[in-house]
Design a protein that fits this description.
The chain is α/β, with parallel strands linked by helices. The protein has two domains: 1-102 and 264-358, 3-Layer(aba) Sandwich (Isopropylmalate Dehydrogenase); 117-256, Isopropylmalate Dehydrogenase, CATH 3.40.718. Helix content is 40%, strand content 22%. It is built from eleven helices and twelve strands. The protein has a ten-stranded mixed β-sheet with strand order 2-1-3-12-11-4-5-10-8-9, with helices on both faces. α1 (15-34) crosses α9 (297-310) and α1 (15-34) runs parallel beside α11. The longest helix is centred in the N-terminal third of the chain and has 20 residues, at 15-34. It is globular and about 55 Å long. Bound molecules: 1,4-dihydronicotinamide adenine dinucleotide (NAI) and magnesium ion.
Amino acid sequence: MMNSYKIAAIPGDGIGKEVIAAGVEVLQALGARDGGFGLEFETFDWGSDYYKTHGVMMPENGRETLRRFDAIYFGAVGAPDVPDHVTLWGLRLAICQPFDQYANVRPTRILPGIEGPLRNVAAKDLDWVIVRENSEGEYAGQGGRSHRGLPEEVATEVSIFTRAGVTRIMRYAFRLAQSRPRKLLTVVTKSNAQRHGMVMWDEIAAEVAQDFPDVTWDKMLVDAMTMRMTLKPQSLDTIVATNLHADILSDLAAALAGSLGIAPTANLNPERTFPSMFEPIHGSAFDITGKGIANPVGTFWTATMMLEHLGEKPAAERLMRAIERVTADPALHTPDLGGSATTRQVTDAVIAAIHGDN
Ligand code: NAI
Ligand code: MG
């Protein structure tokens, strides 16, 4: 019997709408080509426009609605005239946190045909997966403001690290490192300056490491990590870091691999109690919205992660081959990669490559 999956598409704002439309087209072409599985999409108009009409980013029962889907395919949120903390907490984090998508997984590679900004780094020298703790840490939402507007105003932003939360992300990262050929994990920390949460983070890493004797691991302070990523990318493979640290490091990683427009993410609930969410790393990019030049490659690569999560590995591999055939041709590079191709041209080329793949 053919497997069929229900996918909730949430394009959101700005170029999110453009890249998700492209991604849905590509996935439908892939489903038709493979014949082995079906995808049924439902698109939700949640985001900043919805907020301007309804005063909320998504309806009250939005999460109930999403629960019955097998996966969520998400674009981006953020509008110039709505504060970023409203859009982020009102939609993206409002899905990630209650659905306990605690493992944010971000593969980074220099794809064929793409030139990274580092002079002496070849494609084979940069092949990482960053695992970001996605449920607590610096983005737990703890804190507050008192005496607003007065000279004595106080604001706190408290990082939360729990033994359960740190242990599960360490286990996830060690298991992922173990599944990759090099079996190499770098644990990013800041336990010199942050002597409570980050010291516990280090201790738990050492405890979990005992269950993975075949994984080689080391520890790096986050500031030094930026240098190592830039100067010795070959020395890294799997990386685990806190919510804030990994947020920053993964933008650096995306840039080192050629463009933010290429980078994919999976927000995983590994236990599959709730649907997981798949999105490109980039935001809504108001500067290029509506111009038809957004790079859809990050959204396509994200789709391969969604297919893998659904158990459709051959289709995920077929899509990745199609993406790589297209990036290999500089005539099909969008402006963020120095080319002049449009979202439409890249999408058509990927669909053609899917049909031409044997
Ligand atoms: P951004 O990622 O939207 O854009 C940064 C730069 O990269 C811009 O110059 C943009 O044109 C370029 N860029 C990004 N994606 C691209 C693509 N696919 N193709 C070609 N060029 C691309 O980040 P920025 O400007 O800091 O934020 C804009 C809005 O997006 C803000 O409201 C922010 O809060 C939101 N945002 C949302 C995220 C999400 O929904 N997950 C993530 C990051 C930002
Ligand atoms: Mg970010």
